[in-house]
Amino acid sequence: MAKAKTDDAAKAEQGAAAGAQAEAASADSPLGYEQARDELIEVVRSLEAGGTTLEESLALWERGEELAKVCRRWLDGARARLDAALAESTGAAGDGGERA
User: Fold this and answer.
1) What's the CA angle centered on 14, arms 8 and 17, to 5 degrees?
2) Are 41 and 22 contacting, i.e. CB atoms less than 8 angstroms apart?
3) Percent helix, strand and coil across the chain, each rounded to 5?
4) Would you say 14 and 50 are in contact if contact means Cβ atoms under 8 Å apart?
């Protein structure tokens, strides 16, 4: 008779798999915003679910910090582009937009 996995064992396996996935992803090319955000969500879910060892939890936490930085860089870059576009459009409107 096969022994059914307990919830704790299943969570531990999931956490280990997430840690291995995080290590593999860190060696990949730069992530896009959506990819980093989605992976960060999975890291958070794994940490919240618990059932991981201290080492696995630390690896997930570190990966989460890296992913958060990637997301922040993308968001900061998007904000800078929006600010530049807005400044350009208001500058262009003020240069000769009025006619007598």
Assistant:
1) 140
2) no
3) 80, 0, 20
4) no
